[in-house]
Specification:
The chain is mainly α. It contains three helices and no strands. The chain has one domain.
């Protein structure tokens, strides 16, 4: 009778070990899937904002081209060309506003906080302030 009890205990222990192993494998797999999903969501946000940035860049280049053309003309700009420049300016302003709104919506607010004294913050501050 003792052999039967020891085999039962052994089988129960092996079953428990296999269940724990199975649960841990599924937990690890779920964690990896969640991590990949979060990375994909961050990438999608970045791509969305970059799309707006490129549209804004195009709008600004169109406006710059029209203004440069107007500056190279010898005679004064006619009202139609002036209307074109004004329309391109409004389009560029709208594109800038859309880019700003998209960036704020995707990041959940303003720019991420920087750690004071970090190398990146110091490098950025020095380049903006003209210090070396």
């Amino acid at each position: 009778m003792k052999n039967f009890q020891s085999i039962g205990v052994l089988l129960s222990a092996i079953t428990l070990l296999l269940v724990v192993l199975l649960v841990s494998v599924f937990t690890y797999s779920a964690q990896q899937a969640y991590t990949k999903r979060e990375a994909a969501a961050r990438l999608l946000k970045t791509v969305d904002v970059l799309g707006h940035v490129y549209l804004t860049e195009d709008a600004l280049r169109e406006q710059e081209g029209a203004v440069n053309t107007a500056l190279t003309l010898q005679e004064p700009v006619n009202p139609q060309f002036k209307g074109l420049i004004e329309r391109l300016h409004k389009n560029a302003d709208a594109a800038i506003a859309a880019t700003y709104d998209s960036a704020r919506a995707e990041t959940g607010g303003g720019p991420p906080p920087t750690v004071p004294g970090s190398a990146l913050t110091s490098s950025y501050t020095n380049s903006v302030m003209g210090r070396r």
